């Protein structure tokens, strides 16, 4: 994908609701980084809903075809037994959930799943592993999986946790297109959710990914008990990455029994749509992915997310360990809205 163009607000823009307030010229070709303050992002969240949606739709139409939606299929290539303590995650060995620790899938199993995803209409195949990060001996079979997915003509994505020096380059050389690594929430709320890895370490992995020339897929989760300022804080972090991610997954917490976040109050549907709209406005060219949590959403809520600027979904009956609407239902929804897969 081409490098992202500047969001290009005028340098003299006065601090105003919904505008970046601080402009840094970082000397990059083609880009002037506009920094979003948390207050400016919060001002977007505080807009009346019709005003926010109008702005999001205007930005969306300027940069994307609003009738198209990108389809990514997920596969868990190494499930369960993860040493990390992410409070939302059914795969942490520290939480007693129904998810068992399984060995890594074989290359043949991955190829079979990728072929099925392609046949169903997905254009990207994303492989996830329940690791803190890959050891070299774990990475090698993943490199073979990436090569095989590419050979099928699919875009490839991997989400393997924290990367060590040189690992992003190995993935790139195998043909990886995207690396997913989420910031999950604001820096302030993060410590309430995860204690075994720091926000800073996540940012370092994102730098490694960017430094290797891979496309960045980075987003977060809503519905973990965070405040609206935390949501604004997450969006500001994402939008201030330079350049901002090519893909931004917005997940609604999937509550899984046995995880510490099971029983949290579900996120209000309009607040979820606001999150999508604010991501769209602050990161105009990115693909905003309406990600986990769709199984719990009505079709109308999902349609509202598309109207707010979402243009990508996880497509296929399963996310990593939890359910997703089945592919047939998604095809019907997309067709009902007169939209088309990309
Ligand atoms: N282990 C790697 C890591 O954490 O970076 C990769 C896989 S991990 C499951 C990828 C992302 O899935 C997490 O960062 C989180 O944003 C999302 N996720 C995990 N469990 C979730 C849940 N129950 N609801 C919503 N999103 C979830
Ligand atoms: C992302 O932001 N969401 C996906 C993907 N990136 C790896 C994962 C969602 C996981 C939901 C819980 C599960 O199925 O285990
Ligand atoms: Fe492990 Fe990733 Fe789950 Fe955290 S989100 S417990 S790192 S699999």
Describe it.
- This protein is α/β, with parallel strands linked by helices and 342 residues long.
- It has eleven helices and twelve strands.
- Strands 3, 4, 5, 6, 7, 8, 9, 10, 11 and 12 form a ten-stranded parallel β-sheet that branches.
- The longest helix has 16 residues, at 136-151.
- The radius of gyration is 19 Å and the shape is globular.
- Residues 82, 84, 86, 89, 91-92, 130, 132, 161 line the site of iron/sulfur cluster.
Q: Can you give the mean pLDDT?
A: 92
Bound molecules: S-adenosylmethionine, 6-(5-methyl-2-OXO-imidazolidin-4-yl)-hexanoic acid, iron/sulfur cluster
Strand content: 15-25%
How many strand segments?
A: 12
Oligomer: single chain
* Class computed from helices, strands and strand pairing: alpha/beta
Keywords:
single chain, 342 residues, alpha/beta, two-stranded antiparallel ribbon, 11 helices, globular, binds S-adenosylmethionine, binds iron/sulfur cluster
At a glance:
Helices cover 36% and strands 15% of the residues. It is built from eleven helices and twelve strands. The protein has helices at 38-45, 49-63, 107-120, 136-151, 167-174, 187-190, 199-211, 228-240, 269-282, 299-307, 327-336; strands at residues 22-24, 33-35, 68-78, 124-129, 155-159, 178-180, 215-217, 220-222, 247-252, 287-290, 312-314, 340-341.
